[in-house]
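ok new one. same drill as before - structure tokens go in, u give me an amino acid for every spot. 374 of them this time. try not to just spam alanines like last time pls lmao
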């Protein structure tokens, strides 16, 4: 069989395949979009913190529907909101109640970070409540190279509620307070002054802020009635609340996080997960409140004291004075340890260079003694 015949047969087979494929396709009039099977506009009034959303205005209705469809349509993200909700929202609900603030404000944190401690925006906002550096510091959060309390759920929540409460006192509207939380009070006040209105829904604002309130409301509606929007979760589908013991440490000098982990009979990772505000491998000198696994506080102080004493004693024994011709890499090979471990122990950051006379703390493999009785 020559190539010309083979080619003709292939064309025939392709034609048959295309005819069969088209025969099974729906005619144009039967093709339709996958429209949601729930009413986009709820039957009753839509409110935020008791303030009514004027959905009778066409522009407001369209903006609301857009965010409702986007939020409900992002199934993965919305499902994660729901699954994480019982880990965090009960604490916020209690804090709002104690402060006499509307319960709807708990949905702000979901819009800000999706309940993730390490969320970072392209504008430098960080943590659960997405504080920028200046605002976080203004509301009492410690932010430095060792600690960033914007990532601490409890301290950042108290700071966020104080900020929102102050914004409400300034603006007399929770809707405007939430808008100011997003864009900053100075920017919002200037727009209100220039446009001569105190009605959020009549203000022309940056697109992000115009969408922000509707995003919060869409989150609220989904989380209040997930089944209505197609999310069918059982009790076991929700992530459980975080359990922990809270301890106070007085560090006479910088202490490695791994010492705390050993005293708590857990891992470095679990201590960092429970305390996401810790930014490195050390706890600085001073008083600190640390979360450790539930039950680990029993006899923690005794174990910690033994480990600290061993650490301080050992630290003085393991000092290497850099000699001429040494490099960090040659020193690492000498002690059979990773280069970056030397950098961590001596806080060299990313500077992997040393000079003769430098004093380096070096822990050879298995050189750190374990505390007795653990």
């Amino acid at each position: 069989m020559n190539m010309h015949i083979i080619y003709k047969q292939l064309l025939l087979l392709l034609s048959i395949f295309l005819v069969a494929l088209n025969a099974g396709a729906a005619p144009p009039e039967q093709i339709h979009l996958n429209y949601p099977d729930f009413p986009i506009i709820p039957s009753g009034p839509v409110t935020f913190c008791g303030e009514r959303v004027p959905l009778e205005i066409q522009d407001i209705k369209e903006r609301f529907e857009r965010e409702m469809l986007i939020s409900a349509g992002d199934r993965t993200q919305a499902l994660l909101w729901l699954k994480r909700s019982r880990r965090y929202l009960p604490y916020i609900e209690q804090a709002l109640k104690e402060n006499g603030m509307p319960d709807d404000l708990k949905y702000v944190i979901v819009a800000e970070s999706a309940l993730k401690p390490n969320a970072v925006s392209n504008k430098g906002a960080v943590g659960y409540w997405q504080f920028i550096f200046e605002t976080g510091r203004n509301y009492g959060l410690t932010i430095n190279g060792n600690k960033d309390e914007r990532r601490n759920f409890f301290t950042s929540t108290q700071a966020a509620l104080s900020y929102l409460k102050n914004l409400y006192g300034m603006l007399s509207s929770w809707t405007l307070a939430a808008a100011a939380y997003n864009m900053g009070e100075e920017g919002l006040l200037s727009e209100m002054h220039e446009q001569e209105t105190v009605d959020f829904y009549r203000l022309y604002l940056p697109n992000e802020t115009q969408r922000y309130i509707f995003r919060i409301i869409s989150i609220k509606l989904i989380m209040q009635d997930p089944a209505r929007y197609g999310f069918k979760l059982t009790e076991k589908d929700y992530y459980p609340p975080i359990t922990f013991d809270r301890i106070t440490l007085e560090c006479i000098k910088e202490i490695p996080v791994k010492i705390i982990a050993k005293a708590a009979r857990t891992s470095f990772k679990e201590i960092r997960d429970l305390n996401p505000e810790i930014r490195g491998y050390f706890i600085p000198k001073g008083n600190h409140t640390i979360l450790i696994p539930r039950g680990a506080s029993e006899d923690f102080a005794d174990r910690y004291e033994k480990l600290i004493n061993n650490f301080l004693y050992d630290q003085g024994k393991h000092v290497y004075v850099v000699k001429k011709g040494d490099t960090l890499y040659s020193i690492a090979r000498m002690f059979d340890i990773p280069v970056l471990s030397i950098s961590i122990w001596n806080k060299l950051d990313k500077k992997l260079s040393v000079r003769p006379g430098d004093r380096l703390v070096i822990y050879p493999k298995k050189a750190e003694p374990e505390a007795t009785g653990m």
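Residues 243-309 form one domain. and btw The CA atoms of residues 36 and 69 lie 8 Å apart.
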